[in-house]
Protein backbone atom coordinates (compact mmCIF):
# COMPACT_ATOMS: atom_id res chain seq x y z
CA UNK A 1 0.00 0.00 0.00
CA UNK A 2 2.83 2.38 0.88
CA UNK A 3 4.50 1.73 -2.46
CA UNK A 4 1.24 2.24 -4.32
CA UNK A 5 0.78 5.51 -2.46
CA UNK A 6 4.24 6.70 -3.51
CA UNK A 7 3.58 5.78 -7.14
CA UNK A 8 0.29 7.64 -7.05
CA UNK A 9 2.02 10.67 -5.51
CA UNK A 10 4.68 10.67 -8.23
CA UNK A 11 2.03 10.36 -10.92
CA UNK A 12 0.19 13.36 -9.49
CA UNK A 13 3.43 15.36 -9.32
CA UNK A 14 4.30 14.35 -12.87
CA UNK A 15 0.83 15.31 -14.08
CA UNK A 16 0.96 18.68 -12.36
CA UNK A 17 4.46 19.33 -13.72
CA UNK A 18 3.39 18.41 -17.25
CA UNK A 19 0.33 20.60 -16.97
CA UNK A 20 2.43 23.53 -15.78
CA UNK A 21 4.88 23.01 -18.65
CA UNK A 22 2.09 22.99 -21.22
CA UNK A 23 0.62 26.13 -19.67
CA UNK A 24 3.99 27.90 -19.86
CA UNK A 25 4.50 26.87 -23.49
CA UNK A 26 1.05 28.15 -24.45
CA UNK A 27 2.03 31.57 -23.10
CA UNK A 28 4.67 31.96 -25.81
CA UNK A 29 3.97 34.81 -28.27
CA UNK A 30 3.72 32.39 -31.20
CA UNK A 31 0.41 31.11 -29.80
CA UNK A 32 -1.07 34.57 -30.15
CA UNK A 33 -3.09 36.94 -28.02
CA UNK A 34 -6.19 36.88 -25.86
CA UNK A 35 -9.63 38.22 -26.59
CA UNK A 36 -10.94 40.88 -24.26
CA UNK A 37 -12.46 44.34 -24.04
CA UNK A 38 -13.87 46.01 -27.15
CA UNK A 39 -12.49 43.25 -29.40
CA UNK A 40 -14.33 40.52 -27.52
CA UNK A 41 -17.52 42.54 -27.49
CA UNK A 42 -17.34 42.99 -31.25
CA UNK A 43 -16.71 39.27 -31.72
CA UNK A 44 -19.81 38.51 -29.67
CA UNK A 45 -21.93 40.71 -31.94
CA UNK A 46 -21.10 38.64 -35.03
CA UNK A 47 -23.90 36.48 -36.48
CA UNK A 48 -21.30 33.66 -36.62
CA UNK A 49 -20.63 33.78 -32.86
CA UNK A 50 -22.60 31.29 -30.73
CA UNK A 51 -22.10 30.10 -27.16
CA UNK A 52 -18.63 31.57 -26.76
CA UNK A 53 -17.19 30.55 -30.15
CA UNK A 54 -17.56 31.01 -33.87
CA UNK A 55 -19.31 28.37 -35.95
CA UNK A 56 -20.25 27.56 -39.51
CA UNK A 57 -23.69 28.10 -41.02
CA UNK A 58 -25.20 25.53 -40.84
CA UNK A 59 -23.13 24.32 -37.90
CA UNK A 60 -20.46 21.68 -38.43
CA UNK A 61 -21.00 18.12 -37.16
CA UNK A 62 -19.11 17.17 -34.02
CA UNK A 63 -16.69 14.34 -33.38
CA UNK A 64 -13.59 13.12 -35.18
CA UNK A 65 -12.94 9.70 -36.71
CA UNK A 66 -9.58 9.02 -35.05
CA UNK A 67 -9.43 5.30 -35.92
CA UNK A 68 -10.29 5.95 -39.55
CA UNK A 69 -7.72 8.73 -39.74
CA UNK A 70 -4.97 6.48 -38.34
CA UNK A 71 -5.93 3.77 -40.83
CA UNK A 72 -5.67 6.24 -43.70
CA UNK A 73 -2.22 7.35 -42.55
CA UNK A 74 -1.05 3.74 -42.61
CA UNK A 75 -2.14 3.04 -46.20
CA UNK A 76 1.24 4.03 -47.63
CA UNK A 77 0.54 6.90 -50.01
CA UNK A 78 3.61 8.80 -51.25
CA UNK A 79 3.08 11.99 -49.28
CA UNK A 80 6.30 13.73 -50.27
CA UNK A 81 7.89 14.22 -53.72
CA UNK A 82 10.53 11.68 -54.70
CA UNK A 83 12.34 14.30 -56.78
CA UNK A 84 13.37 17.92 -56.31
CA UNK A 85 10.37 20.18 -56.79
CA UNK A 86 11.23 22.80 -59.43
CA UNK A 87 11.30 26.30 -57.98
CA UNK A 88 11.75 29.45 -60.05
CA UNK A 89 13.55 31.81 -57.70
CA UNK A 90 12.18 35.33 -57.80
CA UNK A 91 14.73 38.17 -57.99
CA UNK A 92 14.48 40.35 -54.85
CA UNK A 93 14.76 43.46 -57.00
CA UNK A 94 11.36 42.71 -58.53
CA UNK A 95 9.64 44.02 -55.40
CA UNK A 96 11.58 47.27 -55.53
CA UNK A 97 9.81 48.34 -58.72
CA UNK A 98 6.44 50.13 -58.67
CA UNK A 99 3.43 47.89 -59.24
CA UNK A 100 2.40 47.99 -62.89
CA UNK A 101 -1.26 48.09 -63.95
CA UNK A 102 -3.00 44.79 -64.60
CA UNK A 103 -3.17 41.48 -62.75
CA UNK A 104 -0.31 39.06 -62.14
CA UNK A 105 0.47 36.42 -59.55
CA UNK A 106 3.24 34.22 -58.21
CA UNK A 107 2.54 31.07 -56.18
CA UNK A 108 5.03 30.84 -53.29
CA UNK A 109 3.79 27.47 -51.99
CA UNK A 110 0.85 26.09 -50.00
CA UNK A 111 -1.68 28.96 -49.66
CA UNK A 112 0.88 31.77 -50.01
CA UNK A 113 0.68 33.91 -53.12
CA UNK A 114 1.99 37.29 -54.21
CA UNK A 115 -0.58 39.24 -56.20
CA UNK A 116 -0.32 42.52 -58.08
CA UNK A 117 -3.75 43.93 -58.89
CA UNK A 118 -4.47 47.38 -60.29
CA UNK A 119 -1.51 49.02 -58.61
CA UNK A 120 -1.67 47.17 -55.28
CA UNK A 121 0.78 44.49 -54.19
CA UNK A 122 -0.72 42.02 -51.71
CA UNK A 123 -0.24 38.51 -50.36
CA UNK A 124 -2.51 35.69 -49.25
CA UNK A 125 -1.64 33.79 -46.05
CA UNK A 126 2.12 34.41 -46.29
CA UNK A 127 4.10 31.61 -44.63
CA UNK A 128 7.78 31.80 -45.57
CA UNK A 129 9.21 30.05 -42.51
CA UNK A 130 10.80 26.62 -42.82
CA UNK A 131 8.07 24.91 -40.79
CA UNK A 132 4.31 25.31 -40.42
CA UNK A 133 4.62 24.99 -36.67
CA UNK A 134 4.94 26.97 -33.45
CA UNK A 135 8.44 25.53 -33.07
CA UNK A 136 11.52 25.94 -35.28
CA UNK A 137 12.77 22.43 -34.41
CA UNK A 138 9.62 20.36 -35.03
CA UNK A 139 6.50 20.23 -37.15
CA UNK A 140 5.73 19.99 -40.89
CA UNK A 141 8.76 21.13 -42.88
CA UNK A 142 8.71 22.71 -46.33
CA UNK A 143 9.10 20.24 -49.19
CA UNK A 144 10.79 22.88 -51.31
CA UNK A 145 12.47 26.27 -50.78
CA UNK A 146 10.39 29.41 -50.96
CA UNK A 147 10.76 31.16 -54.34
CA UNK A 148 11.31 34.37 -52.39
CA UNK A 149 13.36 34.71 -49.21
CA UNK A 150 11.71 36.32 -46.19
CA UNK A 151 14.27 39.13 -46.06
CA UNK A 152 13.40 40.00 -49.68
CA UNK A 153 9.75 40.69 -48.84
CA UNK A 154 9.32 44.43 -49.17
CA UNK A 155 6.83 46.97 -50.51
CA UNK A 156 3.85 44.73 -49.75
CA UNK A 157 0.78 46.93 -49.41
CA UNK A 158 -1.64 44.40 -47.94
CA UNK A 159 -2.04 40.86 -46.63
CA UNK A 160 -5.28 38.89 -46.31
CA UNK A 161 -5.36 36.13 -43.69
CA UNK A 162 -7.94 33.34 -43.99
CA UNK A 163 -7.55 31.95 -40.44
CA UNK A 164 -5.08 31.48 -37.62
CA UNK A 165 -3.73 27.94 -38.13
CA UNK A 166 0.06 27.68 -38.30
CA UNK A 167 0.18 26.80 -42.01
CA UNK A 168 -1.70 30.05 -42.78
CA UNK A 169 -0.56 32.53 -40.12
CA UNK A 170 3.19 32.66 -39.51
CA UNK A 171 4.52 34.95 -36.78
CA UNK A 172 7.96 35.50 -38.33
CA UNK A 173 6.54 36.47 -41.72
CA UNK A 174 3.94 38.76 -40.17
CA UNK A 175 6.52 40.53 -37.98
CA UNK A 176 8.77 41.12 -40.99
CA UNK A 177 5.96 42.53 -43.12
CA UNK A 178 4.64 44.69 -40.30
CA UNK A 179 8.01 46.43 -40.02
CA UNK A 180 7.58 47.46 -43.66
CA UNK A 181 4.18 49.06 -43.08
CA UNK A 182 2.02 46.30 -44.57
CA UNK A 183 -1.70 46.40 -43.73
CA UNK A 184 -3.36 43.18 -42.56
CA UNK A 185 -6.96 42.22 -43.28
CA UNK A 186 -8.10 39.46 -40.94
CA UNK A 187 -11.22 37.82 -39.50
CA UNK A 188 -12.61 38.83 -36.12
CA UNK A 189 -10.29 37.98 -33.24
CA UNK A 190 -7.18 37.36 -35.35
CA UNK A 191 -6.07 40.92 -34.66
CA UNK A 192 -5.31 39.85 -31.07
CA UNK A 193 -2.51 37.63 -32.37
CA UNK A 194 -1.07 40.43 -34.49
CA UNK A 195 -1.17 42.86 -31.58
CA UNK A 196 0.73 40.32 -29.45
CA UNK A 197 3.37 40.36 -32.20
CA UNK A 198 3.69 44.18 -32.00
CA UNK A 199 1.89 44.94 -35.27
CA UNK A 200 0.69 48.58 -34.98
CA UNK A 201 -3.06 48.84 -34.49
CA UNK A 202 -3.36 51.18 -37.48
CA UNK A 203 -2.15 48.35 -39.73
CA UNK A 204 -4.72 45.79 -38.48
CA UNK A 205 -8.19 45.62 -40.04
CA UNK A 206 -10.44 43.05 -38.33
CA UNK A 207 -13.51 42.20 -40.37
CA UNK A 208 -16.69 40.13 -40.22
CA UNK A 209 -18.15 38.35 -43.24
CA UNK A 210 -19.51 40.73 -45.88
CA UNK A 211 -17.59 43.72 -44.55
CA UNK A 212 -15.24 45.59 -46.87
CA UNK A 213 -12.27 47.93 -46.81
CA UNK A 214 -10.35 49.94 -49.41
CA UNK A 215 -6.64 50.33 -50.05
CA UNK A 216 -5.26 52.49 -52.88
CA UNK A 217 -8.43 52.10 -54.95
CA UNK A 218 -8.74 48.33 -54.50
CA UNK A 219 -11.63 46.95 -52.44
CA UNK A 220 -11.11 44.00 -50.10
CA UNK A 221 -14.23 42.04 -49.20
CA UNK A 222 -14.29 39.60 -46.26
CA UNK A 223 -16.45 36.68 -47.38
CA UNK A 224 -17.67 33.40 -45.85
CA UNK A 225 -15.81 30.10 -45.62
CA UNK A 226 -16.53 26.78 -43.92
CA UNK A 227 -13.70 25.85 -41.59
CA UNK A 228 -12.53 26.16 -37.95
CA UNK A 229 -9.81 27.98 -35.99
CA UNK A 230 -7.58 28.14 -32.92
CA UNK A 231 -3.81 28.29 -32.31
CA UNK A 232 -3.74 26.71 -28.85
CA UNK A 233 -6.53 24.22 -29.54
CA UNK A 234 -9.42 23.67 -31.94
CA UNK A 235 -11.72 26.05 -30.08
CA UNK A 236 -13.08 28.20 -32.95
CA UNK A 237 -11.91 31.27 -31.05
CA UNK A 238 -11.39 33.42 -34.16
CA UNK A 239 -13.32 33.89 -37.39
CA UNK A 240 -12.15 32.17 -40.58
CA UNK A 241 -12.86 33.78 -43.95
CA UNK A 242 -12.37 33.83 -47.69
CA UNK A 243 -11.57 37.05 -49.57
CA UNK A 244 -12.76 38.80 -52.74
CA UNK A 245 -10.38 41.49 -53.97
CA UNK A 246 -11.73 43.87 -56.62
CA UNK A 247 -9.86 46.65 -58.35
CA UNK A 248 -11.09 48.98 -61.09
CA UNK A 249 -10.07 46.51 -63.79
CA UNK A 250 -9.42 43.10 -62.23
CA UNK A 251 -10.60 40.74 -59.48
CA UNK A 252 -9.22 37.86 -57.42
CA UNK A 253 -10.98 35.46 -55.04
CA UNK A 254 -9.08 33.50 -52.38
CA UNK A 255 -11.00 30.61 -50.81
CA UNK A 256 -8.90 30.00 -47.69
CA UNK A 257 -9.42 26.59 -46.11
CA UNK A 258 -13.05 25.58 -46.53
CA UNK A 259 -15.56 22.87 -47.10
CA UNK A 260 -17.95 23.04 -50.02
CA UNK A 261 -21.20 24.88 -49.31
CA UNK A 262 -23.65 27.35 -50.89
CA UNK A 263 -21.46 30.28 -49.83
CA UNK A 264 -19.65 30.19 -53.18
CA UNK A 265 -22.85 30.86 -55.11
CA UNK A 266 -23.83 33.54 -52.58
CA UNK A 267 -20.49 35.32 -53.05
CA UNK A 268 -21.06 35.41 -56.81
CA UNK A 269 -24.60 36.68 -56.33
CA UNK A 270 -23.46 39.52 -54.09
CA UNK A 271 -20.08 40.44 -55.53
CA UNK A 272 -19.95 39.02 -59.05
CA UNK A 273 -17.68 36.40 -60.60
CA UNK A 274 -13.90 36.70 -60.05
CA UNK A 275 -11.39 36.84 -62.87
CA UNK A 276 -8.88 34.65 -61.01
CA UNK A 277 -9.71 32.14 -58.29
CA UNK A 278 -7.12 30.91 -55.77
CA UNK A 279 -8.74 27.72 -54.52
CA UNK A 280 -7.78 25.23 -51.83
CA UNK A 281 -7.67 21.69 -53.31
CA UNK A 282 -5.47 19.69 -50.91
CA UNK A 283 -5.64 18.23 -47.37
CA UNK A 284 -8.99 16.45 -47.56
CA UNK A 285 -10.40 13.09 -46.53
CA UNK A 286 -13.58 11.17 -45.92
CA UNK A 287 -13.66 10.93 -42.10
CA UNK A 288 -16.25 13.38 -40.80
CA UNK A 289 -16.12 16.18 -39.98
CA UNK A 290 -12.94 16.55 -42.07
CA UNK A 291 -14.69 16.65 -45.45
CA UNK A 292 -17.13 19.22 -44.03
CA UNK A 293 -14.34 21.77 -43.55
CA UNK A 294 -11.72 20.63 -46.13
CA UNK A 295 -13.27 20.13 -49.57
CA UNK A 296 -11.76 17.70 -52.06
CA UNK A 297 -10.59 18.60 -55.61
CA UNK A 298 -13.89 17.72 -57.26
CA UNK A 299 -15.70 20.02 -54.84
CA UNK A 300 -13.18 22.77 -55.57
CA UNK A 301 -13.94 22.51 -59.28
CA UNK A 302 -17.65 22.60 -58.49
CA UNK A 303 -17.07 25.69 -56.32
CA UNK A 304 -15.31 27.37 -59.23
CA UNK A 305 -18.42 26.72 -61.29
CA UNK A 306 -20.57 28.28 -58.56
CA UNK A 307 -18.32 31.34 -58.50
CA UNK A 308 -18.25 31.65 -62.28
CA UNK A 309 -14.51 32.32 -62.13
CA UNK A 310 -12.51 32.56 -65.35
CA UNK A 311 -9.25 30.89 -64.22
CA UNK A 312 -8.59 28.50 -61.31
CA UNK A 313 -5.22 28.28 -59.58
CA UNK A 314 -5.12 25.26 -57.19
CA UNK A 315 -3.55 25.95 -53.78
CA UNK A 316 -2.85 24.12 -50.51
CA UNK A 317 -0.77 21.25 -51.86
CA UNK A 318 2.90 20.37 -52.60
CA UNK A 319 4.53 22.40 -49.78
CA UNK A 320 3.74 20.72 -46.44
CA UNK A 321 2.91 17.09 -45.64
CA UNK A 322 -0.40 17.73 -43.86
CA UNK A 323 -2.78 15.08 -45.18
CA UNK A 324 -3.14 11.36 -45.76
CA UNK A 325 -3.42 11.45 -49.53
CA UNK A 326 -0.51 11.33 -51.99
CA UNK A 327 1.22 14.71 -52.33
CA UNK A 328 0.34 15.06 -56.04
CA UNK A 329 -3.20 13.61 -55.84
CA UNK A 330 -4.89 17.03 -55.42
CA UNK A 331 -3.61 18.45 -58.72
CA UNK A 332 -4.29 15.23 -60.65
CA UNK A 333 -7.88 15.02 -59.40
CA UNK A 334 -8.44 18.73 -60.03
CA UNK A 335 -7.27 18.46 -63.63
CA UNK A 336 -9.34 15.31 -64.15
CA UNK A 337 -12.53 16.97 -62.86
CA UNK A 338 -12.12 20.32 -64.63
CA UNK A 339 -13.16 19.44 -68.24
CA UNK A 340 -16.64 18.24 -67.24
CA UNK A 341 -17.48 21.70 -65.89
CA UNK A 342 -15.42 23.57 -68.51
CA UNK A 343 -13.12 24.97 -65.80
CA UNK A 344 -9.78 26.43 -66.90
CA UNK A 345 -6.98 25.38 -64.53
CA UNK A 346 -3.43 26.74 -64.48
CA UNK A 347 -0.55 24.82 -62.88
CA UNK A 348 2.33 27.27 -62.43
CA UNK A 349 5.60 26.14 -60.97
CA UNK A 350 6.60 27.63 -57.65
CA UNK A 351 7.66 31.20 -58.37
CA UNK A 352 6.44 31.20 -61.98
CA UNK A 353 4.58 34.35 -63.02
CA UNK A 354 0.99 34.25 -64.25
CA UNK A 355 -0.24 37.38 -66.02
CA UNK A 356 -3.89 37.93 -66.89
CA UNK A 357 -4.42 38.51 -70.58
CA UNK A 358 -1.31 36.60 -71.62
CA UNK A 359 -1.21 33.00 -72.78
CA UNK A 360 -0.08 30.65 -70.02
CA UNK A 361 1.33 27.22 -70.84
CA UNK A 362 0.88 24.57 -68.17
CA UNK A 363 3.76 22.21 -67.46
CA UNK A 364 3.36 18.88 -65.67
CA UNK A 365 6.16 19.77 -63.27
CA UNK A 366 4.69 17.43 -60.65
CA UNK A 367 5.50 14.42 -62.84
CA UNK A 368 8.63 12.46 -61.96
CA UNK A 369 11.17 12.81 -63.30
CA UNK A 370 10.44 16.41 -64.29
CA UNK A 371 12.32 17.16 -67.55
CA UNK A 372 12.93 20.80 -66.60
UniProtKB/TrEMBL annotation:
Classification via Gene3D superfamilies: Ribonuclease Z/Hydroxyacylglutathione hydrolase-like
Protein's name in the database: L-ascorbate metabolism protein UlaG (Beta-lactamase superfamily)
Membrane-crossing residue ranges in chain numbering: 7-26
Source organism superkingdom: Bacteria
Keywords from the UniProt entry: Membrane, Transmembrane, Transmembrane helix
Metallo-beta-lactamase domain sequence ranges: 121-317
Pfam families the record matches: Lactamase_B_2
GO cellular component entries: cytoplasm
Matching InterPro entries: Metallo-B-lactamas, RibonucZ/Hydroxyglut_hydro
Amino acid sequence: MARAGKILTWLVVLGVGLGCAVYVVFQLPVFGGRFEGARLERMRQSPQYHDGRFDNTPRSPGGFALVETIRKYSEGQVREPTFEVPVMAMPPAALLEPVRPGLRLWWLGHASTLVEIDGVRLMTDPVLSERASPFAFAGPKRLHPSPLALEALTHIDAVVISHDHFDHLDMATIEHLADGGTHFYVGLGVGAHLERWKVPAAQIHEMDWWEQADIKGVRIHCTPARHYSGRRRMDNSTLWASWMIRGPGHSVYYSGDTGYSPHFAEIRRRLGAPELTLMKVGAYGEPKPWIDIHMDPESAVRAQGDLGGSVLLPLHWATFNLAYHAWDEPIRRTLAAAPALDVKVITPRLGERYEAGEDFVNTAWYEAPYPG
